[in-house]
Amino acid sequence: MEGIKLSFPPETPPLSVIAALSLSSSPVTIDSSSAATTVPTFVFSDGRKLSGTSVLLRYVGRSAKSLPGFYGHDAFESSQIDEWVDYACVFSSGSEFENACTRVDKYLQSGTFLVGHSLSIADVAVWSALAGMYPSSCYESC
């Protein structure tokens, strides 16, 4: 992941992406000087870009070589992770927050992690949502 810059507005840092980058020891330059209307974006050294919190989170998960299983060990687990990353947006909907917490609580009664037997970006996305830092514009950037 060399030569990547994470750009985002200082008012809305993509906590899930920053946490995933830290956990995976990914070398990324951080630029928190973007305009407030900008969605989080990876800018690659060759000029290519990826935008949106869940897109960036999935990219980190797929490319994290230091954390096997961070994006699942097989296609089924990767799909389960996708479900949870998409579901994390529900936490930003005030009316659905309590139901979302109940669902996660019941699900975790039978295990420590949301998918498989190790930390994944699903856990990071839900943790970030519970911390209140998943973007309120999540539905647009997911």
Automatic annotation (TrEMBL):
GO terms for cellular component: cytosol; methionyl glutamyl tRNA synthetase complex. It holds the Pfam family GST_C_3. CDD domains: GST_C_AaRS_like. Keywords: Protein biosynthesis. One of its GO terms (molecular function) is glutamate-tRNA ligase activity. One of its GO terms (biological process) is glutamyl-tRNA aminoacylation. Residues 100-133 form the Glutathione S-transferase C-terminal domain. This is Glutathione S-transferase C-terminal domain-containing protein. It comes from Brassica cretica (Mustard).
